[in-house]
Prior knowledge:
The protein is built from eight helices and no strands. By secondary structure, the chain is an all-alpha fold. The chain has one domain: de novo design (two linked rop proteins) (Up-down Bundle), CATH 1.20.1440.20. Helix 2 runs parallel beside helix 4. The termini are far apart. The C terminus is likely disordered.
Amino acid sequence: MLKWLMTVFMALALSGCGYNTLQTTDEDIKATWAEVLNQYQRRADLVPNLVNVVKGYAAHEEKVFMEVTEARARVGAMQATPELVNDEAAFQKFIAAQGELTGAISRLLLVAENYPQLKADGLFRDLQAQLEGTENRITVARNRYIDAVKAYNVTVRAFPSNLTAMLFGYTTKPSFTVENEKAIATPPKVDFGAPAAPAPAN
């Protein structure tokens, strides 16, 4: 009987000191971060096809193709695991790499401005639409992660839940900073409008 009462007391004490909230918000972070990674991977998977279709019309733009390919390779080489959110330095490196890829994709898309036939290509326009949708999903997933981290970090820092956090080894987790938000918050411009009309025949 005493053992049962002690168990109930401990459960109530932990609940009152934020233990359950820490558990719940920690799981929220894992779920929202997994979705961020999923959408970033979706974008990375679009890059090779996007590069190839642009190459078909602008083969001499080698520098731009190299930048995109190298940026994608740097992203792919990083260990993008759920545990990444527990390592501030690794988290920031990953976000910086994603920012570099965003910039490289933007430069690749700018190339299309000079090639009306490329802008009218059906495959290019399909990839363009997929990329735009993916960028929107990245933004939504990132915002959900930011909200989840905010709720968790408040619990870790606030009294008396901070005592529970220290007792069980819960520490604050990194989020997107002002600096890397500037690099990644604005998605690449992918809307070139309607295809250019063909030139009239002589």
